[in-house]
Amino acid sequence: SQTIHQWPATLVQPVGSPLSLECTVEGTSNPNLYWYRQAAGRGLQLLFYSVGIGQISSEVPQNLSASRPQDRQFILSSKKLLLSDSGFYLCAWSRGIGSYNSPLHFGNGTRLTVT
Amino acid sequence: DQQVKQNSPSLSVQEGRISILNCDYTNSMFDYFLWYKKYPAEGPTFLISISSIKDKNEDGRFTVFLNKSAKHLSLHIVPSQPGDSAVYFCAASATDSWGKLQFGAGTQVVVTP
């Protein structure tokens, strides 16, 4: 069966510090990978998605970047955090190219607080 | 622009009764619709989905109805149980969108004894 791991679960970082959140998927190959953010009291906003190694698409302009160095690894980064980067970050995967109508499966998220 | 809307931020229902959650969408290209359940400090869990070629899909206590002409879908939970207390998100995607889901803002469901 497929599993998704996301860490850390919580993180408190000062403004201006760097960020690295990591996500890995097991039990599947060539998944589509996604980073979402949930701001307090709001829905989930898609930040980045990837259909393959090194292929990253950004959905919204922001202070963050994403990378996919391996097939089942997805990293969310920032060089300098802003207060507005606080939120709940979720990694997700779905079956890849050629698999239509496939649900996304989410990790347990990272609660990021920028102070 | 919010393409998926859940206009009820909260819903309170008595244990054993039916919970009905509503969702509206604006993008006519959406052809796949999903419901997720989320507990605090956890990721959303996939509940049930429906493609645009159907108007109903049922899985145990959960049934999703799709009205394409009205661009409306609903989730029925029967009977409601205390463990159903959570935030429910409606989501939608289009076939050519690489699986990207657009989410509604969520509805907080509280099931009371």
Provide a concise account of the structure shown.
Chain A has no helices and 11 strands.
Keyword list:
heterodimer; A: 115 residues; mainly beta; seven-stranded mixed β-sheet; four-stranded antiparallel β-sheet; 11 strands; 0% helix; globular; B: 113 residues; six-stranded mixed β-sheet; five-stranded antiparallel β-sheet
Explain the overall architecture:
The complex is a heterodimer of chains A (115) and B (113). Chain A is mainly beta and 115 residues long. Helix content of chain A is 0%, strand content 56%. Chain A has strands spanning 3-7, 10-13, 19-26, 32-38, 44-52, 55-58, 65-70, 73-78, 87-94, 105-106, 110-114. Chain A starts with a strand and ends with a strand. The mean pLDDT of chain A is 91. In chain B, the strands form 2 sheets. In chain B, strands 2, 4, 5, 9, 10 and 11 form a 6-stranded mixed β-sheet that branches. Chain B has a 5-stranded antiparallel β-sheet with strand order 1-3-8-7-6, with no helix packed on it. The model of chain B has no long low-confidence stretch (mean pLDDT 94). Chain A binds chain B through residues 6, 32, 34, 36, 42-46, 49, 51, 57, 59, 90, 92, 94-95, 100-109, 111, and chain B through 4, 6, 31-32, 34, 36, 41-46, 49, 51, 89, 91, 95, 98-106.
Mean pLDDT of chain B: 94
* Largest sheet geometry of chain B: 6 strands, mixed
Mean pLDDT of chain A: 91
Please count the beta strands of chain B (DSSP E, at least 2 residues each).
11
% residues in beta strands of chain A: over 45%
**H/E series of chain A:** EEEEEEEEEEE
Strand content of chain B: over 45%
What's the helical proportion of residues of chain A?
Answer: under 10%
Helix coverage percent of chain B? under 10%
- Our measurement of the CA-to-CA distance between the termini of chain B, rounded to an integer number of angstroms, reads 38 Å
Unreliable residue stretches of chain A:
none
Count the DSSP helices of chain B: 0
Question: Rg of chain B to the nearest angstrom?
Answer: 13 Å
Structural class of chain B: mainly beta
Largest sheet of chain A, described in full?
7 strands, mixed
